[in-house]
Amino acid sequence: MAATDFIVAIELGSSKITGIAGKKHADGSIQVLALASENSSDFIRKGVIYNLDKTAQSLTSIIKKLESTLKASIGKVYVGIGGQSLRTIRNTEVRHLEEETKISQELIDSIMDSNREVPIIDQEILEVAPQEYKVGINLLADPVGVPSDHIEGRFLNIIARSSVKQNIDKCFKQAGIEIADYIISPLALANAVLTNSEKRSGCMFIDFGADTTTVSVYKNNILRHLAVIPLGGSNITKDICSQQIEEEDAEELKKKYGNAYADKSEDGDDNPTYSLDGKCSIESHLLEDIVEARVNEILANVWNQIVLSGYEDKLLAGAIITGGAANLKNMEEAFSNRTKVEKVRMAKESQLSLKGGMMELKKDGTCNTIIALLGAGKENCYRPERPIQVPLFDESGENVEDKRKREKEEAARIAAEQAAREEAERLAASQNYASSSNGYVATVNEDNIGSMVWITKTGSKYHSHGNCGNSKYVSQVTRESAEARGLDPCSKCY
Length: 494
Prior knowledge:
- Among the domains are: 88-160, Dna Ligase, domain 1; 197-348, Nucleotidyltransferase, domain 5 (2-Layer Sandwich); 389-432; 446-489, no CATH class.
- It contains 12 helices and 22 strands.
- The chain has helices spanning 52-70, 105-116, 162-174, 185-193, 196-201, 233-241, 247-257, 284-309, 331-339, 368-376, 400-432, 479-484, and strands at 7-12, 16-24, 30-39, 44-45, 48-49, 76-81, 87-102, 123-135, 138-140, 147-161, 178-184, 203-208, 213-219, 222-229, 273-275, 281-283, 319-322, 344-346, 452-456, 461-463, 474-478, 488-489.
- A 5-stranded mixed β-sheet has the order 3-2-1-6-11, with helices on both faces. A 5-stranded mixed β-sheet has the order 14-13-12-17-18.
- The longest helix has 33 residues, at 400-432.
- The termini are far apart.
């Protein structure tokens, strides 16, 4: 049975584009109905589209796969925005009032509108995370109703290059797919993975992706900082490739033997070799050094962003790590060793409740973002099959139904005339064709065509009336038929 109530979301990842369709239940749980993906490493880099045609083709393929599983048409989709271009900047808007006035919601809306109108060269504000409002000496999350003659609004604007959203628009338009809304992927992911306690107490949230690593900082349930580092799991793979190893094999070696933090004090003198079914091999110490070096570089950049946020010593909930690249062995230990953060949680799954799905999703952090985007969607994305609407009037203003009726009558009239002509021609041909005993066609005087005469069974004459001859056996034929038989006109009658 075809589904008629579902939400569809698309994740534009650096390693693959993923599409998902699911249904939200009244209890907040999500039922996954369809899932499809296409490799995107050839046309998406660092989370940014650089080949529009290939992206559009992949999107078309994904939508077809989803529709095939759903047995229904998709009318629109939610699209996640992430990638290297994404970052945050702070802005402050100040209002000096003539006298002490109770702050209204209209004033707050005006301050927020002014923040969105701040010009940023070649950048676009995608989302705004209000921080606090400073009223007097107090910082308030909701200042409405507080009397004051001065208010200061503090905002964290999430921005990206204008071309990022424009290119996404072009790809989906080319693929013929309507966009229901844009969703900031790191925000949706944080809402799906982090607990309210972690956001309130303060935490650093790190998503280790293929080409990028996204760092978010939360405190008092407010996003305080967001940055995307252009380094990820694929960089580790490429480092392994430098040892004359094919990329596919390097990726497999990383996943199977990679170690983010190897305790050298426990190592013996042995230096075993890691191999893949005889295809390639690498010394264990060399692989560990390669992986560790790149992991440490990524973590150093992560910690630098935490420090830039100004909250490095205020995050009581510690660090929460997710993403495909976070599955490296001992990633938690590597993070603690590099950042000195002792409290580290690995988020393999989201906090969203999944039940009754048609397929089992991986529980390794790789599906967290696409599930988060699905959870953030609100509107039904089903497109009902609509009957073809016939206009009431044509371009000339004539009633379409009357015109159709008139054309039908005209066609019937023409057909009748044609049939009459054909019947007349057939009759004329049959009259002109007379079969004789020897099979020849007699030449008939046009004046005689159609006149009837009387003939006898054995006589050599034809008569104008039936009682002229003496024979009792008389019959009536056409005059041309009688003459065709070689009969002559009766001298008494003619």
